[in-house]
Amino acid sequence: MKLPLSGDAALWLALVLGAAFGWLLHRGGVTNYNVIVNQFRFRDFTVLKVMFTAIIVGGVGVLALTQTGHAQFHIKPANMLGVTLGAALFGVGMVLYGYCPGTGVAAIATGSLHALVGVIGMLAGAVLYALSFAWVETHIQKVAALGKLRLPEVTGIPDWGWFAILAAIAGVVFWLIETKTRSTGAASRQ
To answer: Is the pTM higher than 0.85?
Structure first.
């Protein structure tokens, strides 16, 4: 049974869910500049743990919605050069800024002035991208364009199998992080 949601109700729900998302980011500690920077310095793995958890929970939720008919996938083309360049630019920006776009906006709500300056920079970057989109589409997006692909179709492993693999990887990573944290803590106490 589909539950249509549109108009004012959808806007109010988006506002409530957005506020809840920001609150969860804050409670998870990822609105703190030092937490994000220390992820890149391999000193604090809060961001990795939050992201792994969010990807698995969100992915399973989306998959459940699609399989029950409450949502549908809209697959974007796998333009590998564009994805690679975009990921590199995003990574450099995140290291320099100390936030990703979502955590930057949530950090503004905590009163962070430097997060506000960064969001203004992101908006300027979005405008520059929009102005250069025709060139990017012609010269970058067509290089190593693989079309609309999904891992389940390419590998033959079903969606739930991919989430099980990802959950197992996350479990191993969490265990390694906790083991390292305990051994580092024990060494520092000696």
So the answer is: no
